């Protein structure tokens, strides 16, 4: 029995729900709710009108867990500049200003979104509106859009002649520490493959970068545009084994784990038989979304059916994935073929978010096999959508911004 069910059962046993709720002080209610998942907090709004108002009060947001508010993304403006946008899950008022106006009055004119993690946002910031990335230097900035506080990171170690930075990711867990890490992976060209050679890691606690060589030297190629997950003190990324000694292409796909000191590098094979779509942390477990496409040819037409599979890594030690749900997308879409990508997995339920080419973002409930929401997207966007869960606590205590 989980905490939510135990709490509700006790209320029913001791006295009628309305009477039991009225005996609890606001501080006690908030203390109990602060230890529950966001989905459970939403359910407790139904206890009474007083509880609903208590949970909805903006003054209590710092204490209560938050859920997915939507997705931050960039859009190209005429001339090549970028603008910030937000696709809301609820369809209501925007929880933050996606333009990040609190950075622009300073020296940053061009802000490219790179990563989000538990309420913090990582950006690459230039002092020109249309920079030449090969010539103009940029700085990494970590900010909290909800509190408008931000930190400008010092430059990472100078890149050597034969290497290039391929992937930069943010690692932060407010339940463990108020400090964050930024991991900047670098690769070199080995034969025909770009192989991960090491990582530069910034710690907000020390304010400095450290360099670590990869224990998977010449064995792994990182995927630049895929999401990462910070879980259990390890950053999880998707990569590809640099080997031809496998029977299936999907057997090359692995989940790479790196600790915050860059000393521990591990791999977990992803489920074989499906193309990679997304990874995410959902309901306290690591999830993987894959897809398969089958072509059916008849005398009248050719039909391509796409199936999404949702897997859960229930035990990190065994490294075994458990299939939770599978669903054919074409039938509920009402079309025989559509090209799409799964970009994210909801942190509180078995819902995935996918974007057809040139279309809006769709939320699909894998458990009940139905589309549950449409998130409107601006055209000409960069097609990188960063999930955003508001963080109202005073993280970034030593921030540059006020």
From TrEMBL:
Superkingdom per UniProt: Eukaryota
Signal peptide location: none
F-box domain mapped to chain residues: 24-64
Pfam families in UniProt: b-prop_At3g26010-like, F-box
InterPro entries, A to Z: At3g26010-like, Beta-prop_At3g26010-like, F-box-assoc_interact_dom, F-box-like_dom_sf, F-box_dom
Protein's name according to its UniProt entry: F-box domain-containing protein
